[in-house]
Write a structure and sequence with these properties.
The structure holds two protein chains of two kinds. Chain A is an alpha+beta fold. Chain A contains three helices and four strands. By secondary structure, chain B is of the alpha/beta class. In chain B, the strands form five sheets. A nine-stranded mixed β-sheet of chain B has the order 5-4-7-8-3-9-10-11-12, sandwiched between helices. Classes of the chains: A alpha+beta, B alpha/beta.
Chain lengths: 94, 588
């Protein structure tokens, strides 16, 4: 369980593609750097559970969804542009 | 040559996926290209979504082909409600796993982009939806929304290309809808990717009347109709009017349909109209066109055939009530489902839409005859140039189906030919002119059979009388001032009757005189015969006396001869009376 100001993030990928692997690595790096101890990452492989794509409104791969804090935020792409990820997740760099 | 053509049919051709949309399958010669995407484009509000949904609905209901609707614009709830007006029970189809709707929400403001991505998520969704109900049909409405939702257009184009290839590989028949762009078929040039079949929908407004039209822009590997076809969307779904004037190859029938007016049938070789012919009844206001049309409808139903009455100016209940006054009970045919009324104001929509509606009604009801009352109302609802070709299409369509059609037309006064009549009269096989002529201070109806192709028809102008027992055609009285009608005719009839009476009396008198004479003569004959008889009796008496005297003379002569011994010669000649001559001898 994370604290009230913690980040709950979900990353949707489709199989082990280079882009998925890059996205996972980029996300972990950003979180470690800017949200140490305040984040939780769930990685969902739509290849294994395709029904979730429709249920969670996924179009692009990879898609990162900020579940918490509210409101819901979406970032698509391999997260290689750190600046955009920070803006998208509403994280003020320390 | 014929062999070659036949071989051509055996060659592998594009398979067709029937849309089940009336008319469209005829225009496309079977439907959309099977296993390939079709681009359906048009501006906003021209019916793309309804068209696409109808394709899926018909597939699920009629062809047992489940379908997936990938909606980018409308939410499933709205979509279901919107097509609910077409009586499509989408919810049941979804419950039966015949249909799946997936709504894709894309909003640029809610999505940030960071680095490279692809649309694999969309592929997975669509693939999952297709596999979950074993779909054969897919609709993507409208994928261009993605261009508004995502920044990277280049990537998007690459992904769309991949999507269409992927759809082909999946073997599903897909409809991709696209918004009409300036100077191009679609705003983002989708036609570049979906090249197999492109259908363009259009909703044009002319004189404040909107008309929907459909055109097959291209269809790779298949022949197709190239014209613009009007179509309608109403509570009974979509129907495209596929008719074209391809050729004059109608089979001419020799069967007849009664006109409903026995006197008119007599003018038409005693049998009525040819089956499948087109009849124009033109006349001025109040000359009895509708009544003539109703008689025809009544006669058609009376012979057990179906008829559709397209009423443009009166409501069905009006027509039924009004025709009771001439002794026609149309309601009973309506109740027996032989007569169908289709009443629409001409101003409801444009001419093409009217014709598309008629096409739909005719293919539904399959009548033997139709009545369009009046045609002239329709003519005013189209641009003048289009009218002629559209009427030709309608007449051709009806003829090709062997349907007898009666058109009424409100014409100008005194039989002058207005331009509309000139335009359509050449298409008509029978042309009846109804006049309402003024003479002697009254208006009287007259009928003239101007033409009737293929039969020896009467050339008489007849007086046309509406009785409580239907239309009667009076024989013409031709006087020095033309045909006598109305009270002039009645006066003439009275005069004729008086003259006939005099003639009859004269005849009777003469025959009475003759009878007298005959009796007098036969009385005289009797008297003369009686005289003759008495004279004959006298003559016979005298004759008998004469013979007796003669015998006496002979006997006397013999007796005298005996006494003078004249010899045996005499004795031999006359038999010797026994004893008597002896007595004479004694006395001599």
């Amino acid at each position: 369980m994370i604290e009230d100001d913690g980040y709950s993030l979900r990353l949707y990928v489709a199989g082990q593609t280079p882009r998925s692997i890059a996205a996972i690595a980029n996300l972990k790096k950003i979180c470690e750097q800017h949200l140490p101890g305040r984040y939780e990452i769930e990685i969902i492989d739509l290849m294994k559970d395709p029904a979730l794509a429709m249920r969670h409104q996924i179009v692009a791969i990879p898609t990162l969804i900020r579940q918490l804090p509210e409101p819901l935020k979406r970032i698509i792409g391999d997260l290689s542009n750190t600046e955009r990820v920070l803006v998208g997740l509403d994280i003020r760099p320390n | 040559m014929a062999d070659k053509v036949r071989k051509g049919h055996d060659l592998p051709t594009v398979g067709k996926s029937a849309t089940g949309i009336r008319g469209l399958d005829e225009v496309t010669q079977g439907g959309l290209p099977q296993g390939r995407p079709t681009l359906l484009c048009g501006s906003a509000g021209c019916g793309k979504t309804v068209f696409a949904m109808t394709y899926l609905y018909n597939g699920a209901v009629e062809y047992d082909e489940p379908g997936v609707f990938l909606a980018f614009e409308e939410r499933p709830g709205d979509l279901i409600k919107n097509v609910g007006s077409l009586n499509y029970d989408i919810e049941k189809l979804i419950a039966d796993k015949k249909l799946a709707i997936d709504h894709v929400e894309i909003e640029r403001t809610k999505i940030a982009e960071s680095g490279e991505y692809d649309l694999e998520g969309l592929f997975i969704r669509l693939g999952f939806a297709i596999d979950s109900i074993a779909a054969k049909r897919v609709v993507i409405d409208t994928i261009e929304t993605l261009f508004g939702g995502l920044e990277n257009e280049q990537l998007l184009r690459a992904e769309l290309r991949r999507l269409f290839e992927w759809l082909k590989a999946k073997g599903v028949t897909a409809i991709i809808t696209g918004e009409r762009g300036e100077g191009s078929l679609t705003r983002y040039g989708l036609e570049e990717y979906v090249a197999d079949c492109v259908i363009l929908l259009d909703n044009r407004v002319h004189d404040q009347l909107a008309t929907r039209r459909l055109r097959i822009v291209k269809y790779r590997g298949s022949a197709h109709g190239t014209n613009e076809y009007p179509f309608i969307i109403d509570e009974r779904g979509i129907s495209v009017m596929p008719i074209t004037s391809t050729g004059l190859a109608h089979v001419a029938s020799t069967e007849r349909l009664p006109s409903g007016v026995p006197d008119l049938d007599l003018m038409l070789e005693g049998a009525g109209y040819y089956k499948g012919s087109s009849i124009l009844v033109s006349g001025t206001a109040g000359s009895g066109k509708s009544t003539m049309a109703a008689h025809f409808a009544d006669a058609t139903c009376a012979s057990g055939l179906r008829c559709i009455y397209f009423a443009m100016e009166e409501s069905p209940s009006h027509i039924v009530r009004n025709m009771r006054s001439v002794g026609l009970d149309l309601q009973k045919w309506v109740d027996r489902k032989l007569l169908g009324f289709s009443a629409r104001r001409p101003s409801l929509f444009g001419l093409e839409s009217h014709l598309a509606t008629m096409y739909r009604d005719v293919t539904d009801f399959e009548p033997a005859a139709v009545v369009i009352d009046p045609m002239s109302a329709l003519l005013s609802s189209g641009a003048s140039g289009d009218v002629h070709s559209m009427v030709i299409r309608l007449v051709d369509f009806l003829k090709a189906r062997g349907i007898t059609a009666l058109f009424t037309n409100l014409g100008a006064v005194s039989g002058e030919n207005p331009t509309t009549e000139i335009q359509i009269s050449s298409l008509m096989d029978v042309w009846l002119l109804l006049y309402n002529r003024e003479s002697n201070g009254e208006h009287n109806r007259e009928l003239y059979l101007l033409k009737s192709r293929g039969m020896a028809h009467s050339n008489q102008v007849r007086e046309f009388v509406m009785t409580s027992d239907g239309i009667r055609l009076r024989p013409a009285y031709v006087g020095s001032e033309g045909v006598l009608t109305g009270s002039a005719r009645l006066a003439q009839e009275a005069k004729d009757e008086a003259a006939a009476l005099v003639r009859r009396q004269d005849r009777e008198r003469r025959s009475r005189e003759l009878e007298h004479k005959r009796r007098a003569i036969s009385a005289r004959i009797e008297i003369l015969q009686a005289q003759l008889a008495s004279e004959e009796a006298e003559a016979a008496l005298l004759e008998r006396e004469g013979i007796a005297r003669e015998d006496q003379l002979v006997a006397d002569r013999v007796a005298m001869g005996v006494s003078r011994r004249v010899g045996t010669a005499l004795e031999k000649r006359a038999p010797k009376p026994a004893g008597k001559p002896q007595k004479r001898l004694d006395s001599a």
